[in-house]
Amino acid sequence: MTINWFGQSCFRIEVPIRSVRIEDPRTTGSIGTKVVSILIDRFSEERTGLKPPKIKDDIVLVTHEHLDHNNIEGITPEAFLINTPGEYEKKGVAIRGISSYHDKTEGKERGLNTIYVIKAEEMTICHLGDLGQEKLNEKQVEEIGDIDILFIPVGGTYTINYKEAIGVIGQIEPKVIIPMHYKVAGHLSTVLEGPEKFVKELGLTPEKVDKYKISKKLLPLEEMKLIMFEL
User: pTM score, two decimals?
Assistant: First the structure.
């Protein structure tokens, strides 16, 4: 599995899928590998100052209808768009959307947010979107389940802040933590905080990457791992 970050909460996850390809009806076929691509929370350039990736993906996820998360301009007719809670499956990838709040007032200020749990290549990924609740409730924790890789907002203002993020990590206990939705120097001219306070509070030395390649056998067995992307 390969993960790329484009800024804000936008990630592309590419999952190799083994498949049988029949080359001759007289044979049993041969095993080939293709990639299923998942794009999450594509943003608008006007809102973020970042260049959004071109949509070329099999599955497109939207956590909520704000301009820095819901840009589906140019989506192909073949792409499978998911923008509501529910159970989904496409090309061997299982996805669960879980309802949550974008604020601390049960959605009265900023509305609803969908948490996505993605199961692929024997790993489970959780993208929290713009989670604004101070903490997850018991039902949400149960629905999220055991997580290998967690994408979590840490910039505050519109989402949980760095201290609240630490608390949510304690509820989920993932193996790998990937912070998102924070101020990026030279790009986001917003009131979001940078990731520095989060990294200090978490107390883990980050592994800095431009893309993250991971498989089940490479997941940490004991201590959590912190991954930081460089734009």
Answer: 0.91
Residue 165 · residue 179 · CB < 8 Å: yes
Q: Let me know the angle formed at the C-alpha of 42 by 98 and 65, rounded to the nearest 5 degrees.
A: 55
Which pLDDT tens digit goes with each residue over 122-131? Answer: 999 999 999 9
Residue 111 corresponds to which amino acid?
G
**Which residue shows structure tokens 């809670």?**
85
Per residue in 39-72, pLDDT tens? 999 998 877 778 888 999 999 999 987 777 888 8
Distances (CA, A) of 134 to 98, 102, 104, 137, 186: 16, 10, 6, 10, 29
